Amino acid sequence: MEDSEYESVLCVKPEVHVYRIPPRATNRGYRAADWQLDQPSWSGRLRITAKGQMAYIKLEDKTSGELFAQAPVEQFPSIAVESVTDSSRYFVIRIEDESGRRAFIGVGFGDRGDAFDFNVALQDHFKWVKQQCEFAKQAQNPTPGPKLDLSFKEGQTIKLSIANIKKKEGAAGNTKTRPSSSAGMSLLPPPPPPGGKTSHLLPTREHLTVGVAQSQSAIATNTGNATLSWPQPTTTLAATADVWGDFAKASGSSSGQTQQSSNWVQF
């Protein structure tokens, strides 16, 4: 392994027991009942570390942290770590020193949960190693897959529906222009006579046109002067009398109403 790889800690258990194990008599596996479990050879702390693809089971002193033994694990399950046949709290590991000498020892946990964490930490690490190997193989030999064609075919179009544009167009189409007056000004209906009924006969358009024309002619004759003068009262009264002539005639049916109408015209 390269020295640049850092070492990570996978699991730490504060108490573990080490046992001397007898040689295995058969190929069925190890039995923890043969280890004299009440007399462990050593007790301390267990740490599982990883550096690259390798995992290391380290037995250390609880107080000083001095290394007692170390078991390198290249794969799991393997001969480097084996479970016993009669218990889930005990394992057989293969330790190795700096000179390359190897020996098998038994390790056990007082709590079943600690033994479970020990087993899962090794499984997770080598599952990760397997995934990394698969990713490396795929990177070296990429399998060509079908290419996705996103180009437009001949005659193919797309349609975009934008709600804001439709609303603006509809609002513009519904606007209506207000009709302008033919005479350039708006005329209001005359007020009703005081104390009498409103006549149904209103001034005709010809009478109103004559009065407006006379007013405009009076203004046009005085445009040459320095100041503009309004039409004379006599012209206005005459135009008013012409406009309201029909009103006076229509109200002649009753004497009282005739008197009020005549007074209204002569004002």
How is the secondary structure organized here?
Blueprint: E1 7-19, E2 42-51, E3 54-60, E4 67-73, E5 81-83, E6 90-96, E7 102-108, H1 112-140, H2 163-174, H3 205-221, H4 233-243, H5 245-250, H6 255-266
Helix pairs in contact: 3-4
Radius of gyration: 57 Å
- Secondary-structure element order, as H and E? EEEEEEEHHHHHH
The main sheet comes to: 7 strands, antiparallel
In helices, the fraction of residues equals: 25-40%
Give me the side-by-side strand order of the main sheet: 4-3-2-1-7-6-5
Q: Tell the overall outline.
A: elongated
Number of helices: 6
Number of strands: 7
Percentage of residues in strands:
15-25%
Low-confidence stretches: 222-230, 234-239, 253-267
How would you classify the helix and strand content by structural class? alpha+beta
Termini separation: 123 Å
Mean pLDDT comes to 74
Structural notes for this entry:
There is one protein chain. The chain is of the alpha+beta class and 267 residues long. The protein is built from six helices and seven strands. The protein has helices spanning 112-140, 163-174, 205-221, 233-243, 245-250, 255-266, and strands at residues 7-19, 42-51, 54-60, 67-73, 81-83, 90-96, 102-108. Strands 4-3-2-1-7-6-5 form a seven-stranded antiparallel sheet. A hairpin with a 6-residue loop joins strand 5 (81-83) and strand 6. Helix 3 (205-221) runs antiparallel to helix 4. The protein starts with 6 loop residues before the first strand and ends with a helix. 14% of the residues are buried.
